[in-house]
Amino acid sequence: MINLIAGALHPSSGKIHYAGEDITDLAPNERFHRGLVRTFQIPHEFAHLSVLENLMLVAPHQAGEQMWSNWFSPGRVRIDEDEVRRRAWATLGFLELTHIAHERAGRISGGQKKLLELGRTMMTDAQLVLLDEPAAGVNRTLLRKLESQIEYLNRERNYTFLLIEHDMEMIERLCDPVVCMTEGSVLIEADFKTVRSDPHVLEAYLGETKDAAQ
Amino acid sequence: MNFVTLLNYPIYLLIFISIYGCLTIALNVQWGYAGLFNAGVAGFFAVGAYTSAILTSPAAVGRIGGFSLPVPVGMLGAMLACVVAAWPVGKVCLRFRSDYLAIVSIGVAEAIRLVVRSEEWLTNGSRGIIDIPRPFGDLPYAQSQVAFLGLSCLILLVVYFLVERQLRSPWGRMMRAIRDNETAAQAMGKDVPRRRLEAFILGSALMGLAGALYVHLTRVITPDAIDPMIVTFLVWIMVILGGSGNNRGVLVGALIIWVIWSASELVTDQLPADIALKAKYARMFLVGLLLQVILRLRPEGLLPERVGTAGGSGDLGRTSPEAIAPSEGSDDV
After folding, report:
1. HSE (CB half, 13 Å, CA atoms) of A16?
2. Which residues contact B217 (CB under 8 A, 6 or more apart)?
3. End-to-end distance of chain A based on CA atoms, in angstroms?
């Protein structure tokens, strides 16, 4: 699902529209520059880069990413870098990860990688953030922190989040509306309470309700 | 004067080390940073060597040439020719994933070798190109060697600093990110195919420069000089031993491997002729064995890649993290 929206997979049929535009044939990197940012269920950190570099990398349109500019206009690159670095440190502060800024990202804990994934979405002007099972493999305490950060980003920076999640408590606290899907098609789209008590959902995920009633 | 004569062999050794140093840095750009498994180093080395040879040598019967251009022009031409050769190769081959790229690049290098061997109008076939001018070639042998060493070291230094700067920049950070995780790099908005092509071309151009340096040293180039067993194989071992991803590391690798390689030649030359011929393969076997030992005991190389080179700890002084890291909920983020 997220692979389709973010462009990692191409749909076998149908079209993907985003903000009024058909993006079906756009590469993932082009979708990123339209404000469509994703995270991964299994963290895809850049293992040999430091945590700080992992964040700095994400900033779009950096002057220093052009091969020639590093040789011919180092001044502009430096100004750009300082700004990106400032933003990365601010993001680390927000995530409370400053103490591991210089750790190799491959060596930090699974939970910290999840935070880092969220942090990467903050290094760009995201509009829609696709979170692929943010709670998977994250302990309760960290999950609470993650939730409050997601809420904050939604409230203060107007990110729209699309969450795919199995953790019902997290969905209850964060999501409205909830879409329940089974075998590739939508069962119901409503608020959490309605979805939870919907007979079709119960049937699909818990087995036949009639049998239980009889 | 006598002293200089005594130093002839070490100087000769050092010239070769600086040429191989250039090759290892070139391969480090491709493999160490961009993760491109180029097994065709010899191919680009050959393109550079022959381009510079053709551009600078005097006219000869039966082949194109007679341009007699200055050596620096030959070197620039060599790099340019490699860019032109690397572009289509990269465009096609970089779509393959790592190990397939290795196979395809071996094929490309072999194709180049066959062209060199058989297209007599271009390369004079197996007789090769002779009379290639040599910088400081008018000086007596010993001084000329020292001067050439100075030139090749200067070129190596320039290459080192330019590449090192590039790799510490956001560009280098992005290349390493692409190497570490292609999917995520693309999801973070990086144009992976284009960036890979850039790294491939940059590395290939530097391989061409090394090839040009080589022909202006030896003044002769024949197809035997671009044996992939020597060029590609040795350069790979240098990079792996030294530490891929670290430019200083690969230079150390070039130094160690070339000294071992040459010293073992001194030893095998003392043997009777019929054994000496076989000993060449024993040397290759030993270097291959060394590679196995390195991979077993120290896969990251002698000087491993450093963490945080782009945006890392060295720059912390400029902006104190505490001063700008806001507390949770602040609007500064």
Report:
1. 20
2. B15, B19, B134, B148, B152
3. 37
Can you tell me the ipTM of this complex? 0.85
pLDDT band at B21 (very low <50, low <70, confident <90, very high): very high
State how far the Cα of A55 lies from the Cα of B328, in Å rounded to an integer: 18
Interchain contact, B187 vs A89, CB within 8 Å: no
**In the predicted model, is pLDDT for residue A118 greater than 90?**
no
Report the alpha-carbon distance of residue B311 to residue A18 in Å, rounded: 34
Instruction: With beta carbons under 8 A apart, name residues in chain A contacting B189.
Output: 29, 32-33, 58, 60, 124
Rounded CA gap, B49 and B123, in Å? 11
The reported pTM is: 0.86
Taking CA atoms, what residue in B is nearest to A34? B189
Cis ω on the peptide bond leading into residue B228 (within 30° of 0)?
no
Q: CA dist A96 to A92, A135, B162, B212, Å?
A: 6, 18, 36, 53
Cβ–Cβ of B184/A81 closer than 8 Å?
A: no
* Cα–Cα distance measured from residue B152 to residue B22, given in angstroms and rounded to the nearest whole number: 9
pLDDT for A207 equals 66
Six-digit token pair at B309? Answer: 């080179």
Strand-pair category, A128-132 with A36-38:
parallel
Question: To which residue do tokens 């091969």 refer?
Answer: A67
For residue A95, pLDDT over 80 is answered with yes
